[in-house]
Amino acid sequence: MTQSTDINTGTSAATKRGAANWLARWWDPRARSRPAPMTTQGALRALTATAAGRIGITCATAVVAVIAAGALRHASTDTVSITDAFLPPSWAHPFGTDDFGRDELARVSVAGRTSLSAAVLVMAIATAAALVLGTSAGLIGGVLDAAMMRVADVLLAIPNLVLAMAVIGALGPGFDHLVIALSVGYVASFTRMTRAFALSARHRADLAAARLAGLGWWRSVLGHVARPVAGQLTIISTLSFGDVVISIAALSFLGLGVRPPTPEWGAMLSDSRGNVAVAPWLLLAPGLAIVLTAIAVNLIADALREGDPG
Amino acid sequence: MVARFVLRRAGQAALTLLLASVVVWILDAFAPGDPAQRVLSSEGVRAPSVAQLKGVALQLGLDQPLWARYLSWLGHAVRGDLGTSYISGLPVRAELASRLEATALLAGSALVLVVLIAVVLGLAAAAAAGRWPDIVIRVLTVICAATPAFVVGLLILRVIVVKFGLGVVLASGDVQDVFLPALCVAIGSMAVPTRVLRAAVISAVGESYSLLARARGARRLWVLVWHGLPNAAVPFVQALALSAAWMIGGTVVVETVFTWPGVGDYLVTSVQQRDLPVVQAATLLATAGYVFSGLVADLLTGLIDPRTRSRS
Amino acid sequence: MTTPTPGRDGLRIENLSVRYPSGAHAVRRISLHVAPGRTLALVGESGCGKTTVAMAVLGLLPGTARVEGSIRLAEHEVVGASEASLRRIRGLHVGLVAQDPMRSFDPLLSVGTSVREAWRVHGRRPVRDGVATTLGELGIPEPRRRLRHRPHQWSGGMLQRAAIAAAGAHTPALIVADEPTSALDADRADAVLNALRATGAGVLLISHDLELVARHSDEVSVMYAGTIVEHGEAAKVLAAPRHPYASALLAATPRPGAGLPVPLPGAPPGLDVEPAGCAFAPRCPLAGEDCAENQPPLHHDVACHRVNGRAA
């Protein structure tokens, strides 16, 4: 469970390290937190062998199934039919209908695609930016490194959701702005971690060996630094994915995210407020979708981290 | 020795806050859209003339270079003037001040609840490590971490609406209404502290000194309380500090759900209306809260375990 | 503690067997006797079951371990006793000194508080200045002031002596010392062992340091793969061991003037393996056919077919 693995600014290095170490030992206090590259087989094994992994995969499958089922339905999300408004769940409409008579399952499905694609975009941007920025900071060092870390620290001092709101305040709502706004905080935290990995990777024996063997600077860096760093980044971004989905939902709920008529789980929850006594399924369907997705992602991330050979 | 430690941390915190103000200010300075136009349109002027726009722009100091504008803003802010709302035309500071108490009440109550929940559940999970109560609690933390504060809030509101038939729940911002909103924030933020406390207690109970305590005749509960809890205090405080960001975000959202008249509610409406001076001020206030919580956590850590004080 | 009056009869272990749920048979029918005031050393390689014996004597094995046989501490039976009875035995009739003194003390408590815990868990209080007096007798300078310090301010040797003071708090019949000097420098080791003997209790010294054992113990039991293969007066066993494993162990120990140590080839068998015959047979230079088939009983304090004249 992540809930902000961002390291708080203003805390001393020692306490930060202590906190990071404690956070790394979620289930097993005896597990050590040495990062190591994770293979695809290792990942698959971790996912299927642990209870967390299995439940996580199950939930993820459920979410994907709902999204797929909604997508396959003939009913379009924009088919308005006032006579069919507020129908409770039935065979025809497994999640009922909303205030405009639209099929709720289809809406949840489309909203899911919006939420998840936004989350994926945020993680992709953050990972790519962090890879470039963090690796350069770690490898080049000096003033560039110090300056970037200071900026990152300041960005991390602003609570992530509030920072996103401030960016949206400046740019205005909308899908694109939502993605940018959320990426800022994650770029900062991922860059810090990438820099730490790059620093430790810089001194790895295999990098020195590659250089001694005559390999060019770029090739040796790409192969021996970027690759393990990218591996670690993947795990970290998976850990934060759940938080991102929740943040997207929260921002959309507040009307600060995607603009109507684009459906999004958080926005649907906001819309359901007025009719909550009449049509509780309009609250439960997107709510459950958010929760299931977050559970799935967090459990999968837990399983991957547990399986991380350390 | 302690004073130097405190001063050093406080100085770092102040510097961080200052830099954060730069970042937030830059964000708003580069925001698309013309502030002058926004001010005029909120005053009711539909199609302002060029002269009117220029006049307002001069008033807002928009003709100055960036650094001058920042310093001017900073100068005002330090003296307590946080600017004027584009929308209402009223000073930001007054509105923030009146709402601060409600938010502090909500956030403070949420913190108390998080600590209570985390200590009780974390300790219970550690005491029953590996057995079914531990598993149940772990599952509970997974579910709570996955459930955003506003979903919890909506569910709670639905129960209230259905049970009491109230159309809208208007929260007054007073103590008697704070429990439910605080509970929402707490539920969304309890996962990390609970798990950290559990892990830290299990670790402490597995240490040599705990074994020796039992060898001297102590019962398991004694070891849990007198050796497990105190040694878990430092990681627990750190985990609370890390969750503070999530708690602040949760507070903002919950204030909207329960229409709690606090700073978070103000921030949301100002973002919706792109009322930048308010966004700026409220963001900085939230940041100040977060930085302050980190500072307090550091101080508590130094107090509990003197070994951490000497390290930078 | 200046006039020790230990319990009668010390420690008496008879046919003790310990099995873990994983299948490992850690202790296989061993018998021991430690008279009050005498020091019995239990030696052997890592993993031979020594620590399991120590934990069994204290009743601190995990609940899943299956224990058979008898462990009597001054007329109290440990095997099968309830947790409540065990709490009345621990600390009062048996004490423990662990390996790493730095980890034997709760880092958040003063050394004095930790030592006084030995009394507090039984609802008693030490005699005024009693702890300081005892520590002074054990060679700790300025004990009253030092006791207010935290463990990280003490040295390992001093901490270990404080641990001994705590272990001997109620003049128990036995003190179990599990590798008490492994984490210390050689010159400190003697001081610690002397402190142990000064308590007047029987001492079950678990160690792999044969030099130390030779200097400080009265009797020696050599353990291999969960069984005792040789037993006797320390001077005799260590000068002229009869069992081939004991000889090999001695030959592998670096000693001044004894020439190069000869390491023992191979490794001890895993404890989940149940050999039909002598566990040492695969590595034994004297092994014959019968050795792999019949387990040698402890006869004349040696468990070896060859030595006891049962030639094939």
Outline of the structure:
The complex is a heterotrimer of chains A (310), B (312) and C (312). Chain B has helices spanning 2-29, 35-42, 50-60, 66-78, 92-127, 132-146, 149-164, 179-189, 191-205, 208-215, 220-257, 263-272, 276-304.
Q: How does this structure look, described?
A:
The complex is a heterotrimer of chains A (310), B (312) and C (312). Chain A is mostly helical and 310 residues long. Chain A has helices at residues 13-24, 40-49, 51-72, 104-140, 142-157, 160-171, 175-202, 205-212, 217-253, 265-272, 281-306. Helix content of chain A is 70%, strand content 0%. In chain A, helix 3 crosses helix 4, helix 5 (142-157) crosses helix 7 (175-202) and helix 7 runs antiparallel to helix 9 (217-253). Mean pLDDT of chain A is 77; it is low at 1-37. The longest helix of chain B has 38 residues, at 220-257. The radius of gyration of chain B is 24 Å and the shape is elongated. Chain B has a domain at 104-272: MetI-like fold (Orthogonal Bundle), CATH 1.10.3720. Chain C has 312 residues and is of the alpha/beta class. Chain C contains eleven helices and ten strands. In chain C, helix 3 runs parallel beside helix 6 and helix 6 packs parallel to helix 7. The longest helix of chain C is centred in the middle third of the chain and has 13 residues, at 186-198. Mean pLDDT of chain C is 86; it is low at 1-7. Chains in contact: A-B, B-C.
Rounded to an integer, what's the Rg of chain A over CA atoms?
22 Å
Euclidean distance between termini CA atoms of chain A: 19 Å
Question: At the third CATH level, what is the topology name of the domain at 104-272 in chain B?
Answer: MetI-like fold
First and last CA, distance of chain B: 13 Å
Helix content of chain B: over 70%
Structural class of chain B: mainly alpha
Count of DSSP-assigned helices of chain B: 13
Order of helices and strands of chain B: HHHHHHHHHHHHH
Question: Largest chain-chain contact?
Answer: A-B, 71 and 81 residues
Strand content of chain B is: under 5%
- Extract low-pLDDT stretches of chain A: 1-37
Cα radius of gyration of chain B in angstroms: 24 Å
- Could you spell the SSE succession of chain A in H and E letters? HHHHHHHHHHH
Structural class of chain A: mainly alpha
- What's the total count of β strands of chain B? 0
How would a textbook summarize the main sheet of chain A?
none
